[in-house]
Design goal:
Gyrase A, domain 2; 4-stranded antiparallel sheet; 4-stranded parallel sheet; 20 helices; globular; binds arginine
Length: 577
């Protein structure tokens, strides 16, 4: 059920019946304050102005024409011509009952399924994954889960950096280590990279070999390809382990690295040249974009081929974009990449549109995010100033969570503690990130993300377990309850409306790629649940069976909504903690 869409449709019908031009919007929004109604339509004032009518009179006519029988309990005109809509308790009850027994919580599938390509994670394979990869990986994954749930065809693309000049050096190092019969273990990619780099800087013969290897690799030499593939496999195995620990849905088949586009780079540059977009400048091929000119009017230069023939990050991204449009048939392409690459993305999008690699119907979105900061307000580093490895960060999260879990419930068995700590620790790190406005920087803080109070993963996970404990106490299977859901008290009504807003929140999050709105929603839902729980006894003596069952069904829907919401964010729940 999507209240907003339903009301929107009914109000539009009434507007038409009043002769209001069909292109004017109904502007339905949840009522923000007391006296605003449960929902409010702001459709009369604009239309009245356009039609030269009195807004309150027009609002009155719309209300008279509105068919909300059985849905609304009260329609009221407020202020200059707002229409306040109060929802009928019986209608709320039956909508909730439908949701509670429905496997999708009565959330409709989209009527307009798209093919959505989501570009996220994309680590450079030469290095171990570090905190810099965290945001792209978890925000991108949340959107992939959500859009899939809504019924879109989601194609995940892990655009790994597997093709830069550093690969010559890495392959040369790998070859030497293999020759010395060393057991090849890239568990610590960082160390391996440092070794190769040191070797490269100190040994001219090695450096020469490394440079030679890049050329051979990029021109398709079989031996080079084989070593490179070995390196890639090892490195990808490391990323895969991280994805599993993080509960991220990326798999091997989502990897389509930079190297994949190699064969298309020369034709792409050629095409941009013949179409007259690229021109030679100091030996390089450059597209000058007037569209992105600086304030002095100098066009923005996009180098697509270096002097000497090498291709660049932008060239590969153009080839990838073209592939996604032509071969993957994308309608929407979402890039979850650091805000510091904004100019790069703008350049790529502008060149692609200009060169007609992509037509206007395809949506290209750079969904930028800010930086994860340390307490000192500078980009998050280890105490000694090094980059924080993702593997270490996740291990620390689980360790810290286990201290809290043991403290909270010393009775738990060891295997339960480790399972719960994993879910709480990983969930906390993810939730702390997802709950912040995407485009802002945020400060990484262990204590606040692991707190059981406030807008955190543990708070929501705990709220979920509290509901489960009610069912254990009541010895009740909530899926078997069938009596009506009765909405009587203020607290029940507030909770009911919040529950039924899940669908419209998901729509907004999917449209704007803003998972923090889902987090805020879940937090508010859990808080309203706590208020309801205080005010509305469930298992107490003297409560009729009907009321008890009605409230149990509400509890169950709360738990399922929290569970589903967290699942869409890639966060797990547990039965107890
Ligand atoms: N490998 C890049 C980096 O680490 C991220 C790739 C993002 N995706 C893309 N299509 N450019 O910065």
């Amino acid at each position: 059920m999507n209240i907003r869409d339903l009301l929107n449709q009914r109000v539009l019908q009434a507007m038409q019946a009043c002769g209001i031009p069909a292109d004017l919007p109904a502007l339905i929004a949840p009522g923000k304050k007391a006296g605003f109604g449960d929902y409010q339509a702001n459709c009369a004032m604009g239309a009245a102005k356009q039609m030269g009518k009195n807004p309150r009179e027009l609002a009155t006519a719309i209300v008279a024409a509105m068919d909300l029988k059985g849905i609304a309990s009260k329609l009221e005109i407020a202020g200059p011509g707002f229409i306040n809509i109060d929802l009928a308790p019986e209608w709320l009850g039956s909508s909730l009952a439908t949701a509670q027994t429905d496997s999708r919580l009565d959330i409709p599938q989209t009527t307009n399924p798209q093919t959505v390509v989501i570009d996220y994670s994309g680590p450079n394979l030469a290095k171990e994954m570090h905190v810099g990869h965290l945001r792209s990986t978890i925000i991108g994954d949340a959107l992939a889960r959500l859009l899939e749930f809504q019924g879109h065809k989601v194609i995940r693309q892990n655009h790994v950096g597997d093709w830069g000049t550093q690969f010559g050096m890495l392959i040369a190092e790998l070859e030497e280590q293999l020759a010395q019969n060393k057991q090849m273990d890239l568990k610590d990619l960082e160390v391996f990279y440092q070794q190769a780099k040191k070797h490269f800087d100190e040994d001219e013969t090695f450096a020469q070999k490394a440079r030679d290897y890049v050329v051979r690799l990029q021109s398709g030499d079989a031996l080079m390809q084989k070593l490179w593939q070995q390196f890639k496999d090892l490195s990808l195995a490391h990323s895969k382990e991280i994805y599993q620990n993080l509960n991220v849905t990326l798999t091997d088949s989502d990897v389509r690295g930079e190297s994949f586009y190699n064969d298309d780079l020369a034709p792409l540059v050629e095409e941009l040249k013949t179409k007259g977009f690229a021109q030679e400048s100091e030996g390089a091929q450059v597209v000058f974009l007037e569209e992105l000119a600086d304030k002095d009017g100098n066009p923005s230069p996009v180098i697509i081929q270096k002097q000497g023939g090498g291709y660049l990050y932008a060239t590969t991204d153009l080839a990838a974009l073209r592939f996604r449009v032509n071969k993957l048939n994308a309608n929407r392409i979402m890039y979850f990449i650091d805000a510091r690459q904004s100019l790069h993305m703008q350049q790529v999008f502008t060149v692609a549109r200009k060169a007609a690699f992509v037509d206007a119907s395809v949506s290209l979105e750079h969904l930028a995010f800010g930086t994860m900061m340390g307490e000192d307000g500078k980009p998050f580093k280890t105490r000694s100033g090094g980059t924080v490895k993702l593997a270490d960060l996740l291990e620390e999260a689980v360790e810290r969570a286990s201290v809290l879990v043991k403290e909270k419930n010393p009775e738990l068995a060891a295997n339960e503690i480790s399972e719960i700590s994993r879910k709480v620790g990983i969930g906390s790190v993810k939730y702390a990130d997802l709950s912040k406005t995407r485009t802002n920087d945020y400060i990484f803080n262990w204590d606040s993300m692991l707190s059981f109070e406030g807008n955190t993963a543990p708070y929501l996970q705990y709220a979920y377990t509290r509901v489960q404990s009610i069912f254990r106490k009541a010895e009740c299977d909530p899926t078997a309850l069938s009596s009506n859901i009765m909405i009587q008290s203020e607290q029940e009504k507030n909770l009911a409306i919040k529950l039924l807003q899940f669908s419209e929140v998901l729509d907004q999050v999917a449209r704007e790629a803003i998972p923090h709105v889902l987090c805020t929603y879940l937090y508010e839902l859990a808080s309203l649940y706590m208020t309801f729980y205080e005010a509305c006894p469930i298992l107490k003596e003297g409560i009729t069976e009907d009321l008890r069952n009605s409230r149990l069904r509400l509890c169950h829907l709360v738990a399922r909504t929290i569970e589903k919401g967290l699942d869409l964010l890639g966060i797990e729940v547990m039965e107890r903690m």
